Structures are given as structure tokens and as C-alpha cells.
Amino acid sequence: MSVLLIAEHNNKELKPFTLNAITAASQIDQDLHVLVIGHNADNAAKAASSVPLVKKVIQIDNSIYENYLAENFTPVIIKHAENYSHIICSANTFGKNLMPRIAALMDCSQISDIIKVISPDTFLRPIYAGNAFATVKSNDKKKCVTIRPTSFDAAPSDGGTAEIIKGDGADEFTLTKFVKKEEIKSDRPELGTARIVISGGRGMQSGDNFKLITAIADKLNAAIGASRAAVDAGYITNDHQVGQTGKVVVPDLYIAVGISGAIQHLAGMKESKVIVAINKDGEAPIFSVADYGLEADLFEALPQFLEELNKLNTIQK
Amino acid sequence: MKILVAVKRVIDYNVQIRVKEDGSGVVTDNVKMSTNPPDDNAVEEAVKIKEAGKATEVVAITVGEEKAQETVRKALAVGADRGIHVKAEGILEPLAVSKILQKVVEKEKPDLVFMGKQAIDDDCNQTGQMLAALLNWPQATFASKIDVKDKSLEVTREVDEGLETISVNVPAIVTCDLRLNEPRYASLPNIMKAKKKPLEQLSATDLGIDTKPRIEQIKVEEPPKRKAGIKVGSVSELVQKLKNEAKVI
Predict the structure, then answer these.
(1) pLDDT per residue over B29-74, tens digit each?
(2) What is the pLDDT of residues B70-128, one digit of tens each?
(3) Domain membership flag for residue A119
(4) Mean of the pLDDT values across residues A230-256?
């Protein structure tokens, strides 16, 4: 039994969540191989090979893999899947898009978004926006599993010396073409991995008012999140959305500002270690998950918050 | 162009989910059910494309127990032309549903299949991609914008890093994000009219698809509860607590 992990990378480096997926995959089986499909992605393959938990890296290089289209990745993965009991990937938009296409062709009933490995065939996963946890057992011969990365620690990334072998690609799928990616570049920590996240909701009232949040994020070296309502209203771009259909975050500190706390939002943040809610409606459901609730007008509270932070001698980064 | 739209009946998104005491699942008796929210976006988009003169027919389909028909009726009330209900009982995994949809697609020969990107009950996010795989069609998942061209679609997808645009030749599968559009409400006259629109009934057995679950659901439990927090009286108290008690800043 061996486990094949599909690496998520940007052709230059591994995406950080690949390390979390490696941790989960190694709990299924120690014989863990990583498949790096891309174009000119030698550095990403090298990075995978230096993860001590990884036993072997299979690198497949072709310009058709430059933009990670699931239609092109799937036949390659199936070609290499033969000797593996499990195919594993992160449950972010990359893995969510890709894994079911693989699973269907292997006639496997996929298990999505696991938060715990109970045994090689049994897993824990949230359902109903995390309002229930299901323990599920796969009876398929080959198992396709996606991992919720924030539920597993990142694996140590150096010291390993796994061999890198070159693998064969497959024919191009010509009916889908990549057009463009509008990637929002930011110097801030990534939302998914930041130690502190500060999020704004509908209560922010405008995109311009998010500058109150930005100022605090700068001070705390925090990532900026948002509720679906704030994204729908156009205050901020979709890559900031936290929730059932957005990103799941588990920071040490999550500060929810002007967010009422619909269950769909709670699904994306309620595992955070410490939760702060600032809302002028004392009955808002967000207070039910907050460790520290402040019932206040955010337009008064946020400038005061910044002022108080400025008074501190030291701030953990 | 003909569009098939798949809709699923789920517990309404506003309902507080309760786990059954025996750990066999969640309580569904006497609970409000609705169409899975992003499936409403899928129906809306199909109807809009037809209204723009770029599609000739919109067919709504659901798979599930008798009452799942309600979701097809709702789709008919907002503009779908006819409906299909594939009867199947018990827990339906995305793989089984995609095999059923594959059979119907082979028969109906639509140019496009739309559905929501994820069902809010099992949160699997699989069916569209699986159907695309079985048909060997392009897949445009998590769509927040669809531009219908002559023999292709240009689709903007919501991905973790921001937005990605891909072009897919038809026939293709599109899974819809909540931001794709604003689903309309059905008017009472249209709800009445929808009752007269044709709704074909099939069954999974007729289509030759075994829907027996592959995944054993061993137990369903409540997630661990967070311990109750406190309300603080001022911003300075909040900052002191974060610094000295929680030690996170």
C-alpha cells in the first residue's frame, strides 16, 4: 500500500498547504509519493523531495500542465495511480476541481475535505457547514481523499532527500483552454495560513471603510478576511471570503468586525483558537462563538483598537 | 443550445442542524427543505441565457425521493421549460448521481449542463466534475461569470488566488458559484403555470444505475462545542485580555 499525493504548486514553489496534505497523507501510509505535474517546476519538485516524510517524487513536465487544468492533469494521474491505494490532494479550489474528475474515472466514491485520519479507510469529515461531523469508511479498492489543510499541521519541509524521477505525461485535452488568471498580489500573510485574521462584514458599509481593517491588519501583520455579504456587496474581492463556500481559516486570533455570524460564515472560522467579535448588535450570533465579544459601533471601536495597539510596547508577529 | 440544469433538495440553509441522538444522521423530519442555494443560481443562469436568445430549451432535473420533485417545480416556476425527476431512495453519493446524470445526458443530448458547485448538506463538491469526467467533457467549476460565445463559453472561476478565466468548448459542464447572479423569485401565476409544465419521471433502476452507497457512514455526531466566552466593556479591556490572558498579540 502506498499513497500518492498530488502536489499543489505554482511551478516555482510548493503551495504551503501541500505540506499540510503531506502530514495527513503520511498518517494514512508512510510510503508516501508526491506527484508534481507542471511546467519548469524543478524547484517545486526539489522542495517536495526535501520534505522528510516524502519517499519519492515523480515529476511530469510539459507546457500543457502550466496552468493546472483538471482536464489535462486527470489522465496523467490515472496513468500513475496504478500502484497506489490512495490518491490524496488538498481540499482547496485546486483539489476540489481536480479530485472528483479522477475519482469518477476510477469508479471511486470520493471522500471530501477530511479533518482527521482515523484509519487508512476511515476518516472524519464535517458536513452541513461543520454543524455535524461524520465518521465515514470507504470500501472502494482505491480511495480518493481530499484533505482540509487547516486541520493538519504543516510537515517539516527540509532535511529529506527523496529521489526525483521523471514520469510520462498524457495527451492534451484540447477542448478547454486557459485564458487568464487575475491573481491578487499582497505583501500580507496568506489568509489560509496567517496567525491572525481580521475580517469585515456587511457592517463595514463600504469598501472604503475596509481601510479601518487594513490599518489594524498592518499593525498585527494579519491577513484580511470577509463575510460573503461583504464580498457580494463588492466591498472586497472573492479571495478574501471566509466560510462554507469560501476559505476555512484556523488562526490563533480571528477578529470578526461587523459580521453577524451566519452559520455559513461560522463554518469557515469557528475552529480558530481565539475569536473576537465586534458588533453593535448584542444579539448577533457571532457572539455565541466569540471568546471576547465587544458590543460597540465598529466605526468608533476600530480607531480605538488601533490606538490601544499603538500603545503596546511589543506586539507578537 | 439546450441546457440541462441539475437541482438538489436539501435542508434549508437557514435551519439550525440537529444531529440525531442515535448518531445515524441529522434530523430531517418536519424540517424545512429547499433547493440547494447554488443550484438556484444555475437555474437562473440557464433561464437568463434562454431569455437572451442564446438557448432554446432549459430542462431541470433532480435525483432523489418523491418530494425532490418540488425543486424541479420551483425551477419550472422561474422559467425552465420541462422537468425530469429520477427517482432514487436513500443516501445518494455524488458518484451515483453523476452516473444517473450521464445516462440522462446521453438521452437528452444537451449542449450544457449546469449545477451548483456544492450541495450544502454533504458539502462534497463533486457531482459536476464527476459528470464531466464520465462524459469526457470540459468542466468549468465555481463559475462567477459566464460569457456564451458561438460554440464555446468563457467562464470566470472563483479560485483561492482570485479569479481565473477559461474557455470551454460545448458541450460542457458548468458548476455555479453563489455570485454568478441573483436568483429571481417565482411569481404566483408562474408557480401555477409551472404545475402544467411536463415533468417526466424516471427511476435509477430503469436507467440501470446502482445507487447503493459505497461509503459507510459509521456515525454522525455534534462537533465539539466552544466554551462560552465573555463580553468585554471597552476596547482597552479587549486589548488587555488579548495581550495578557489569551496572549495572542
Answers:
(1) 999 999 999 999 999 999 999 999 999 999 999 999 999 999 999 9
(2) 999 999 999 999 999 999 999 999 999 999 999 999 999 999 999 999 999 999 999 99
(3) yes
(4) 95
- Report chain B residues whose CB lies below 8 A from the CB of A179: 154, 165-167
Q: Which residues of B86-105 are buried (b: 16+ CB within 10 A; e: fewer)?
A: bbbeeebbbbbbbbbbbbbb
CB contact (8 A) between residue A308 and residue B220: no
Under the banding of pLDDT at 50, 70 and 90, the label for residue B227 is confident
* Phi and psi, residue A255, nearest 5°: -110, 115
| Domain presence at residue A98 | yes
Average pLDDT along chain B: 96
For residue A317, is pLDDT > 70? no
Nearest-by-Cβ selection for A128 from B26, B95, B165: B26
Query: Has residue B162 got a pLDDT over 80?
Result: yes
Residue ending a domain, choose from A128, A144, A166 = A166
Among candidate residues B95, B92, B139, the one with its CA nearest the CA of residue B117: B139
CATH superfamily of this structure's domain B2-223:
HUPs (3.40.50.620)
CATH number at residue A94: 3.40.50.620
**What CATH number is attached to the domain comprising A242?**
3.40.50.1220
CB contact under 8 A, A92 and B160: yes
Reported ipTM: the value is 0.96
Q: What is the pTM of this model?
A: 0.95
Give the β-pairing of A86-90 and A122-127: unpaired
Residues A231 and A269 in one domain: yes
Set of chain A residues whose Cβ sits within 8 Å of the Cβ of B20: none
Note if the bond before A75 is cis, omega within 30 degrees.
no
Residue numbers of the domain that contains A107 = 3-166
Do A115 and A231 have their domain in common?
A: no
pLDDT of amino acid A186: 82
Residues A46 and A143 in one domain: yes
A132: nearest CB among B164, B165, B220: B220
Shortest CB distance from A132 goes to which of B19, B96, B138? B19
Buried b (16+ CB within 10 A) or exposed e, B171-193: bbbbbbbbbbbebeebeeeeeee
Mean of the pLDDT values across residues B205-210?
A: 96
B122 in A contact zone (CB under 8 Å) = yes
Which helix (H) or strand (E) segment holds residue A88: the answer is strand A86-90
Count how many pairs of residues, chain A against chain B, have C-beta atoms within 8 Å: 262
Range 149-208 of B in CB contact (< 8 A) with A: 154, 157-169, 172, 177-179
